[in-house]
TrEMBL record:
This is Universal stress protein. PANTHER family: ADENINE NUCLEOTIDE ALPHA HYDROLASES-LIKE SUPERFAMILY PROTEIN. It comes from the Bacteria. Belongs to the universal stress protein A family. Residues 1-134, 153-286 form the UspA domain. It comes from Streptomyces capoamus.
Amino acid sequence: MTRPITAGVDGTEESLAALDWAAREAVRRGLPLRVVHAWRYAEALAAADRETQHGWVAQGVAEAVRAVSARHPGLTVTTDVVEGAAAHALAEAAAGAETLVLGSRGHGPVVGFLLGSVGQQVIAEAARPVVLVRAGDQPTAEAAGRDVVVGQHGGPEDSAAALRFAFETAAARGAAVTAVRAWPLPPVFAYSPGSLKLLDDAGGLEPYEKQALGEALAPWRERFPQVSVAEHVEMGSAGQVLLSLAGRAQLMVVGRRARRTAVGARIGSVAHGVLHHAECPVAVVPHE
């Protein structure tokens, strides 16, 4: 089954930027584009019944689709106007998508995204990668030779999904990958005898981290030999290290392992920090 690139739209500037991003990605990958809009009947509009309100919504979506189709005349586009809660509808749309693309409100040059409750819930629940795009995003970064930057942590299996997404995206764009591995310096008592032996065998902390990153990248280098890869290993907070490289990125890719708490879903501190502060589009990829 061919999965489409799916864009969630609501008529805002940021969602139209997400639609443009999704259309370009669909063209690059030779995939169809699906456009989804979730809406709720507004009883306060007494002069407009449900059918009328649905017509208004559908007309707005159709106008956005006509504009993007004019820019990409060979692109296959389908639309779905769904009545219901946005978070639920978008999470369902993500399940059948190659990638779900959403807009996120920019807030000045420093803070990249304002991630509202809907966006956070969708990212936490989506079974497929979700890309967040700022209002005003332009394709210039994609054509400027910037890298796809991806965070890696743990063993090879822990970041396999994020690495796969990063390499596939870079291959489709003719871009390079910068793979980032960061580590904090734990207190000495946190090391077990086994971990101390591994560090000693590797020649110290930094060589050990470089070796771990190389092992995680090896299968993807073999699978995508055309993609140039740079490795970046640095001690520090993973979120801060990734953000320090955001200026050279056309796309930032992070993994996530969502967890539920009494106050709702949480997507992890690294993904949360990057989403709020990166100026480039950010892809959040669920662990397999």
